[in-house]
Write a structure and sequence with these properties.
heterodimer; A: alpha/beta; Rossmann fold; 4-stranded mixed sheet; 18 helices; 14 strands; B: alpha/beta; 2 domains
């Protein structure tokens, strides 16, 4: 692990700071970008290759089914001063899909997120810092290269932003008690270092080489008639200030060393030297900007939910044997697709249970499973979950199977695919993991499918998972509920309203019907509707022949 | 401190980075990158040394040239000073002593004069044997110094002067013509003590011109060479000899009388002749005589009218002095 020369890594994601990017490579890229104004996306490259805190989760078995990338892209927004920032979505997804194994890390992030949610002042300061970092990135990566033809001016602009960032960190976050304090400590440590003092001196030198006192004589018509120079005083206290003769000698020296002969070349060398001193600290900005996006993005998700009249929260964490509560849980993917998310309450007497969810088609079962999965990911990443209140248990893994796609190259039929899925599930599933399965064993005849289903559920309970499984085997589920032979098996059903329509709420028990007939009628698949279509087609055929 | 970009007020770490920035890289990097910048630096250094050598050579050459110019100027000034020093006060004021006599005689004629010291036998010849300057010209050409200078430059040692110093035996045409021919045949060697006023005027004018200023202002060696050449052409000896003359002999031709002029320009008119003792400041001889070429035979007149008239005039002037 390589730290900054100031001895601190401004890591907001971990209580024990971790250098997650390749410092040496990033430093080289940054030096090149500073010199040339073209970076080729050094921030994105460094973050794509960045390491993540140790995690027991395997994104391949859940991320795609939960549309995690889409969730981050559409729910994590950072809007500052009316402008939408472009986030490092890939990096955010990478952090979210690998929740930390260490509970202390989760707690660290929760504390920061909670403090930012509670303090508008701290959030404002973090947004200000983020805006400055974005400006730094834009200048460094050449996003504004078209307007900056003067290389020295561009580099000085970058150094001005660097100072702004350091000052922002050092002077802000005074009221922070969470992991945000590392920002202030880092800023103050940098401010005390020689490279920062040299930076300040250089910027003062650039804007204040000397003071010229003028005496201006104004005529009766208001026009300037004459002026005379009263005094010229060079800013001798600045270490960069030298006599004109010495500057001239420096130009000669640079010319003989192979540089251009000009005042601008002197400034270029000084800028280069100052930047070199700051490089080790500046590299930290790459990781920092992504860390800040992690929290500001989550706050953006919180704002989006609030705008939709929904609440999010930082969940409490309980042990597997304790009560699970998700109050006013909603599926954020419904919001981003323009739908109406109906919050529901979900409660079980303990976490290590297998919950069979039954109910009518289009009753919200799959959406519920998505919401549960997303809530677990967010909660276990230390962020806000889509629920007004939540009590979750940390899980060593997550397996989700919601989508049953038919692939062109698949060799097995639907049942075969289903069985392969089950096999893979048991190959990877650690004890206590969360399992989310949609319509288990729906690809074969019910009697045989039910046998496999029962086998799977029995085996799952031995791993004491937090399992949520939907099924349309209603009779089978009802039998399991009645027999109660499998311990820790719980049943939830979609609640129906007085008109037999789903309310998108869930209550204990097994549904009596899947309301397939209602769905068929809603979608035009009743006997009368199909008969009328058949007769119309026959009539059209006969008219065509006639 | 390895670079002029660094200052004593800077932190040592910053100084080290500036040194690296201007090219004083670490050994490893240097070895790794014997690159274009190094070669450019070497090339520029070579050019700079070459330019410096050229400039230095040029400066040294220029300095030597200036020293040479200085030496030449100094030598020339010495020549000028020596030339100036060779002139006595009388010589310097020679023209200022001559001009009033000439302009006075040209203004009004106050009658013929023959000084007493000319009356004894051979006194005129003895007087005319003294060193003298001579000038002849129209009466109207003696009004100013510039006019006198122009007249002097046009005036030669003519038959009047030569016959005044060495007169013919009689005024018979044949005798006068013979005398003129004899004098003109070897005239240049006759009466060398009588010089043209022009020798004094032109020589002194050149000698007294501001040579020192010209020499001091001459920037280049070639300018000094040109001045040196001009200075060498100044007739110092002739001028000094002329300026040492004791007598002024002048002849002033009055306005033309009516009638046709001869082929050589001679015509009947009055001539004022004067001999002045410049040392004594006294008129020794002043006479006004008429010349008229009509007394000459036609063949003599067509070729020698002026010369014969001049010689005859000298005979008449000497006759007026009693000789």
């Amino acid at each position: 692990m390589v730290g900054s020369p100031s001895g601190l890594i401004p890591d907001l994601l971990h209580p024990a700071p971790i250098q997650r990017i390749d410092v040496e490579l990033t430093k080289i890229a940054m030096t090149f970008a500073f010199a040339s104004g073209v970076s080729g996306g050094l921030f994105a490259d460094a973050l794509d290759k960045a390491s993540i805190a140790p995690s027991t989760w395997q994104p391949s078995v859940y991320a795609a089914d939960l549309f995690l990338h889409e969730f981050v892209a559409r729910c994590f927004h950072v809007r500052i001063g009316g402008k939408e920032a472009t986030l490092f979505t890939n990096h955010l997804v990478k952090v979210l899909e690998r929740p930390p194994a260490d509970p202390a890390v989760v707690d660290h992030r929760r504390t920061i997120a909670g403090e930012l949610a509670a303090s508008a002042e701290l959030r404002g300061q973090l947004e200000q810092l983020y805006a400055a970092l974005c400006k730094f990135r834009a200048l460094l990566e050449g996003a504004s290269a078209g307007r900056k033809w003067d290389a020295n001016r561009r580099q000085l602009d970058i150094l001005v932003v660097v100072k702004e960032i350091v000052d922002c960190m050092a002077q802000g976050f005074g009221s922070a008690r969470s992991g945000l304090t590392v920002l202030r400590a880092f800023g103050q440590r940098v401010q005390q270092s020689e490279p920062y003092r040299s930076l300040s001196d250089l910027l003062r030198y650039e804007e204040h080489l000397s003071t010229v006192s003028l005496k201006v004589r104004v005529g009766a018509d208001g026009r300037i008639q004459a002026f005379e120079i009263q005094s010229v005083q060079e800013n001798q206290a600045n270490p960069f200030v030298t006599s004109p003769f010495r500057r001239w000698l420096a130009r000669i020296e640079l010319f003989l060393r192979g540089y251009k002969f000009g005042e601008g070349e002197i400034m270029a060398r000084l800028i280069d030297a100052v930047f070199e001193g700051l490089e080790d600290d500046l590299v930290q900005f790459v990781q920092l900007i992504a860390d800040i996006e992690f929290y500001l993005g989550a706050l953006g998700f919180r704002d989006m939910a609030a705008a939709a009249g929904l609440a999010v929260c930082l969940p409490e964490f309980a042990r597997a044997g304790e009560t699970r509560t998700l109050a006013a849980l909603f599926n954020p993917l419904l919001i981003v697709h323009g739908g109406r998310a109906v919050p529901c309450n979900l409660a079980t007497d303990k976490h290590a249970t297998t919950v069979l969810v039954t109910g009518p088609n289009s009753g919200g079962k799959t959406r519920l499973l998505q919401a549960i999965g997303i809530a677990q990911i967010l909660g276990q990443s230390g962020l806000f979950v889509p629920a007004r209140a939540a009590r979750l248990a940390l899980s060593p893994g997550l397996v989700v199977s919601l989508i049953q796609e038919t692939k062109a190259d698949q060799t097995e039929g639907r049942l075969g695919v289903e069985l392969i899925r089950i096999r893979a599930l048991f190959e990877r599933l650690p004890p206590g993991a969360m399992v989310i399965l949609d319509e288990l064993c729906s690809g074969t005849n019910p009697s045989e499918g039910e046998e496999i289903f029962e086998l799977v559920v029995k085996m799952l309970t031995r791993l004491k998972p937090q399992a949520f499984i939907t099924t349309h085997f209603l009779a089978f589920a009802a039998r399991l509920e009645k027999e109660r032979k499998i311990a820790d098996l719980r049943f939830l059903q979609v609640e129906l309203g007085p008109d037999e329509r789903p309310t998108y709420q869930f209550a204990p028990g097994v549904a009596r019907t899947s309301l397939a007939g209602q769905a068929a009628a809603r979608l035009g698949v009743t006997g009368d509707q199909l008969l009328s279509l058949v007769e119309r087609n026959i009539a059209q055929m006969q008219n065509g022949r006639g | 401190m390895g670079t002029f970009l660094a200052t004593p007020k800077m932190h040592p770490a910053l100084v080290a980075r500036i040194e690296r920035s201007v090219g004083a890289r670490t050994k490893r990097v240097r070895e790794k990158r014997v690159n274009a910048r190094f070669r450019t630096s070497l090339l520029r250094l070579t050019i700079a040394v070459g330019v410096t050598a050229l400039v230095s050579t040029a400066l040294v050459a220029r300095r030597r040239y200036q020293q040479e110019v200085s030496r030449a100027r100094s030598a020339l000034l010495d020549t000028v000073h020596a030339q100036n020093a060779s002139l006595t006060a009388d010589e310097r004021s020679f023209m200022s002593r001559v001009e009033p006599w000439l302009s006075g005689l040209a203004a009004s004629y106050e009658g013929d004069v023959v000084a007493d010291e000319l009356r004894p036998a051979k006194a005129l010849d003895a007087t005319l044997a003294r060193s003298s300057v001579y000038v002849r010209g129209p009466l109207s050409a003696f009004g100013t110094s510039a006019a006198i200078a122009d007249t002097a430059s046009a005036s030669t040692r003519d038959s009047f002067l030569l016959c005044l110093l060495d007169p013919p035996a009689s005024r018979v045409e044949k005798v006068v013509l013979s005398k003129v021919r004899a004098l003109y045949g070897g005239g240049s060697n006759v009466a060398v003590h009588a010089r043209r006023l022009h020798d004094a005027e032109a020589g002194l004018r050149q000698m007294l011109s501001p040579w020192e200023d010209r020499v001091a202002r001459a920037p280049e060696l070639r300018d000094l060479d040109r001045i040196k050449g001009e200075l060498a052409k100044v007739p110092v000896v002739e001028a000094k000899r002329a300026a040492q003359a004791e007598l002024l002999i002048a002849a002033m031709d009055e306005a033309d009388e009516t009638g046709p002029a001869d082929l050589d320009g001679e015509r009947p008119h009055q001539v004022r002749a004067i001999v002045i003792d410049l040392r004594a400041g006294k008129v020794l001889l002043r006479a006004r005589k008429r010349v008229d070429p009509n007394w000459l035979a036609a063949n003599t007149r067509s070729t020698f009218a002026s010369a014969v008239d001049g010689c005859a005039l000298a005979f008449d002037v000497r006759a007026a002095a009693g000789r």
